[in-house]
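Changelog entry: the N-acetylmuramic acid 6-phosphate etherase record was regenerated in this release. Current contents:
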Amino acid sequence: MAFTKITEQDSYYDNLECKSVRELLEDINTEDQKVASAVQKTIPQIEKLVLQIVPRMKQGGRIFYLGAGTSGRLGVLDASEIPPTFGMPPTLVIGLIAGGEKALRNPVENAEDDVNRGWEELQEHQITSKDIVIGIAASGTTPYVIGALRKAREHGILTASISSNPDSPMAAEADIAIEMIVGPEFVTGSSRMKSGTGQKMILNMISTSVMIQLGRVKGNRMINMQLSNQKLVDRGVRMLAEELGIGYNESHNLLLTYGSVKKALEAYRH
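Regenerated structure tokens:
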């Protein structure tokens, strides 16, 4: 089957510079509404991936996200939100972007074309067969990601891919291929738009469901969140007060003594 780059196909809209601001916004929103249903179709693959991630992480495995450009930035974003949200150490979900830290803010020339660099970076993190490598590339053709997935798979490491084109070279290197087909972008080829939105949604789904399965949420609350600002301290105090049926001041003291909602709950009940 021939590989078609839907991500590079012409936009359904033209003469964008002639449209009013309202028309532009409404047309972008029309396209954005297609993203959630495209993501919905990938749920069986996401489920398969999460079910394989959880036992690996219980044995000390880690998730590595790899991508270039927007895809790389979204992987780094999701990874960086895990410690404050779920109180996990920053070493368990790691985002790698072609070109390194500099590429988060500035394009790094030819970084994504290096087929060996992704695997080299994984080796720098002492990757093992307990770990999981998730490649992210709207096009599904990024050499940096493809090379890393190929090598990881050769070493018996679970691999997955998130792309916006069916039957991509990247998907061929993955044990579990998540193909979210959102169609041509509003601005032709601008995969930071629908593809980026869908990638963010899928990464949220993967990491949130994994963390819930690992016991980092109770009821519907982030009981392990880091108390890094006043808003989060207040949220934690209210959680404790509600859960234990005690006053605000008592739960405030309890929280500050033990440093997390989970530890405070355990201490109070024992």
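The chain has two domains: 6-213, 230-269.
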